[in-house]
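2 proteins. here.
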Amino acid sequence: EKFGEACAVLRTAAGKNPDDADLQSWLGAVLFRTGDGDGAEAHCRKALELDPVNANALHTLVTVLNGKGQASEALQYQTVLVNSSDAPCAASLTLLGVLHYRLGHAAEAEEGIRRAIVVDPSFAPAHKFLSACLALSGRFGEALEHAETALRLRPGDNGACRLAAVLLDALGRSSEAESHYRAALDLDGTDAVTSRELGKLLVKSGRGAEGVRYLETAASLDPDEPDTWIAMGKARQTLGELGRAEDSFRKAVELDPTP
């Protein structure tokens, strides 16, 4: 309700002062908070026509574009935001790295996130995303260090806990990986990805029946994920349940017919 009142006040002010970039940017920010992404985008673009380095407009516009999946354009504006600041904050630098990461720019992503950690070594999201970048290039040991740092800084982050589990598994430390997966599920029992990965680990460790139970949980939480059904099919094969394995593979093909 308060955001609605704020919108009304800002619309009136912006109508009287259409060339005020700050008013346009704040109207855009408040519209975003009310769920009006298109209106927010329009007013932020207007603000940037008046002031190309208006930080509030840049921040809101990047958020809107990123939410729409327009990572390339979001990256352009985030780059302007970072470069126009004398001292960009860790969150801004991390987002710059994340946008590069989503576009497949591995080196630029790592550089941006490392800059964020220099600015604020205690910023947990930077450590988590750097871990993900390093994992992509096969640097599992260093990636694990940053995942564990993120987890120490933010113990309730089940994503960091799961990431650490994936890396421990990649390093052959399956017992520790299992413990981390279970800890991640303690933090969020509705995380289908964690249930699936724990199930796969258990199957690989020779505990097929237990693994299938976690895979079934993952399938119930996210029935449209073909990877879960593929893992289920392989697990049932190891248990000799060939008919049920076939059903799982057929379900996977139904969801994703591509090889």
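next one coming up
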Amino acid sequence: ATHVGAITQSAGKITTDQLLASSNGSIELGYQVFANSVDLQTTAGSIHLTTFSPTTHVVRATAAAGDVSLIHHGSALALGQVAASGTAGITSYGSILDDNGSGVANVAAPIISLASQGGSASALAISADIVSPGGQVTAIVSNETPPAYGGIHLESLGASGPASLTLRDQSATGGDIFFRHQGNLTLSGYTIATDHGSAILGATGDLNLGGGSFRTSGGAAVTTPGNLTVNGTNTVSGDLTLTAAEQMIVVGALDCSGR
């Protein structure tokens, strides 16, 4: 459907193999949508979609001048291209997965929020390529539907990485966390925590930690082929390994008293 103005689902159920909608206003599909794939775009306004299919492939959900909100009541939400000028909020009762190949952005927005209630034994709970230069990125795996399998894998693309990073995995098993930015990464604040797993934070360029916290059961590693600079106050609960191929400069504090 292509419409000049808003597209709104006020009630009822939409069942289709492919759902396509284009608008110069908001797209509100917040009731029961059963679709194998969706392709939504708007030049003005926000997108709100709630899906109930076991697996939904989001080919595209782009809001050039608004937010994107995706809520999935199924086992897997597979992301193609999601982009917002404000917030991209994505919630799945199952996994959130990369559906367009490695090195191609799945989610691009100043504020990115990814939430999963856990994946399957053979899949990560959250896996995506993201773009959020100087922005705020949050990825959380909860344990609301045990046995929940966890795991967070985020590749950050773009000229610079996010300034704020929160990664938390509360799943009962498989809760390893991986985050890497392709280039230089400067974090003004970060929180990385997993109840049952390890964590890796890295960059392919220089890495600057501005203060934050690690809490892991399997240890954490910070790694870069460039320079590593530690500023601010950084608290650690669990083992921590710092690796830099070039200089390592600790200006701030590393508090390992929680180890």
